[in-house]
Each structure stands twice: as C-alpha cells, then as structure tokens.
Amino acid sequence: MLLIYDCERPEPDDPGFAEALVRVNAFADECRRRGAFVSGHPLQGEHTATTVSVRDGRTLTTDGPYAETHEHLGGIYVLDCRNLDEALELAAMCPMAEQGGIEVRPIVGVPGLDHRPADPAATRE
Q1: pTM of the shown model
Q2: For the segment 54-101, what is each residue's pLDDT rounded down to a tens digit?
Q3: Which of 7, 71, 82, 121 lies deepest, with the highest CB count within 10 Å?
Q4: What is the CATH number of the domain that holds 78?
C-alpha cells in the first residue's frame, strides 16, 4: 500500500488541476500496465475525520484524525507489486512524492481473514 502524506491536492477550479489530473492518471495507467493497480483513493481533508474507539464497552468518537500531528494522510494506492523493489520504484514515480511523502507498507496476509467485498446485490439499510 502506498500511503500519501502531506501533499496539497488542487481543487477542480484551480489552475493546476488539469495538469495534476493528467499526471496522476498517467501514474495509475503505468501501474495498470504493469498489472499492479488494485485501487487508489484520495481522502477528504483531515478536518473531516472522526476517530472511533471503544473502551470498557463504551463507544467514543472524537473529531479529527487519530493522531495530533502536522502530517496528514491524503490518499492511498493499493498495488499488487512483484516485490518491495517494484513498490519503491512505483512510489518514486507517484506525482505526490514531489511535494509530500509516500509511505510504502506491505499488506499482511492473515490466514482465515475474510476480506471479500460486499455482494453488490445486498441491500443497505
């Protein structure tokens, strides 16, 4: 997983938006060309975060991200890379690495853990 930290994303009405979109889409296309792209998602700003924890059976919610820090998580890419070297190479190609930092972290395979996506036919209440 590529965790994207500390980069400002231009809004659609900003002058640099079109160029940024071209670069980000080119990066995703390169990941697809290599067969590595699984998904990628920008996140809304940290001011929209709510942290949930449960202590002694009580659910606690706090406005804001989990940690009080100057860094902020701006988005993620999930890639299926051949090895760490490919993951690091792709992280360096990610356009957001030019302004922020890209943390590369392997996803753990846990035997018996069920992470299948929801059935699209399922109803949401």
Answers
A1: 0.83
A2: 999 999 998 876 555 556 889 999 999 999 999 999 999 999 999 999
A3: 7
A4: 3.30.70.1060
